[in-house]
Design a protein that fits this description.
Elements (H helix, E strand, L loop, with lengths): L1 E2 L11 E6 L3 E7 L4 H4 L3 E7 L2 E21 L2 E12 L5 H9 L1
Antiparallel strand pairs: 1-4, 2-3, 3-6, 4-5, 5-6
């Protein structure tokens, strides 16, 4: 994903997909990357995992929610980020998630 930092700048952000539908996606984002979602109204998705998208998707940030969970005995903090696309994801892109 890319966030509008500067007109010509982009940043690769690591995340885990929690849920995906034709019109949106929910991500789990680590604390070190959440600043790219908190400081923007939109992000542009050009690649997901090793799949380069055929078109760039502009995604509106609908919500950012902090949550805590236990992992290997330690309390971890992460964020759920809900994103909505103005253009539906292609079927082949949705099918890709059933294969991985």
């Amino acid at each position: 994903m890319q966030a509008e930092l500067l007109a010509s700048a982009s940043q690769e952000v690591n995340f885990q997909v929690i849920d995906i539908s034709e019109s949106g996606i929910c991500l789990m984002v680590d604390e070190k990357f959440i600043k790219y979602f908190k400081n923007n109204l939109f992000v542009t998705m050009v690649k997901m995992q090793d799949m380069l998208m055929s078109v760039a998707y502009e995604l509106e940030i609908i919500y950012v929610k902090k949550f805590r969970f236990r992992f290997k005995g330690k309390i971890q903090t992460s964020y759920r980020v809900g994103l909505k696309s103005s253009v539906n994801f292609q079927k082949s892109q949705l099918d890709y998630f059933t294969l991985i």
